[in-house]
Amino acid sequence: MLVCLLPSVAFPVAAATGGTTGDCTWSLDDTVLTISGNGAMEDYTSYNSFLPWGTSITEVIIANSVTSIGGAAFYGCTGLTSVTIPDSVTSIEWAAFSGCTGLTSITIGNGVTSIGNSAFYNTAFYNDNVNWESGVLYIGNHLIKSKSTPFDNG
After folding, report:
1. What is 18-139's CATH topology?
2. Could you count the other beta carbons within 10 Å of the beta carbon of residue 137?
């Protein structure tokens, strides 16, 4: 009987640094995520918490050609502190930034007309830290963690 012993060596698996998300592409440089391309991002599910870029991102750069931020796209990214959403984005889907407990500042561009349910639920910011531009026509429930909102959700 011949027995061959090989040393046990663990080979690290490199995290993905780029790919596609719906009609867009993404690239990750350390903890900075860039979303570019023309069109809508893919929807993700908060239940499996799998995001191709992970949840350790600290900054998101969204190109001025992206039209929709996907559902749960940044769910649970607790290190994310501020986001600027360009005018090209027309919708922010359900739970897009839910659970981003470090998110304290967001600027929403003029193009956004729809914000889905729980889009900013369980985030650290309050109404004072949101730069609301004109044009939002629909806001889902649980938009932000606050006792009052600047809009009538009724």
Report:
1. 3.80.10
2. 9
CA triplet 57, 29, 118: central angle to 5 degrees? 25
- How crowded is residue 134: how many other Cβ atoms within 10 Å of its Cβ? 6
Which residue do the tokens 């949840």 mark?
A: 55
- What is the spatial distance between Cα 108 and Cα 127, in angstroms, rounded to a whole number? 12
pLDDT tens, position by position, 46-57: 665 689 999 999
Give the mean pLDDT of 146-152.
42
Q: 75 exposed, middle or buried (CB, 10 Å; 0-12, 13-18, 19+)?
A: buried
Residue spans of alpha helices (H) in 36-75: none
Cβ(71)–Cβ(95) below 8 Å: yes
Residue 63 near residue 86 (C-beta atoms within 8 A): yes
Taking the domains of the chain in order of start, what are their residue ranges?
Answer: 18-139
Angstrom CA distances, 69 to 6, 38, 81, 148, stand at 48, 12, 17, 24
More confident position, 34 or 115: 34
Give, as one character, the DSSP assignment of residue 127.
Answer: G
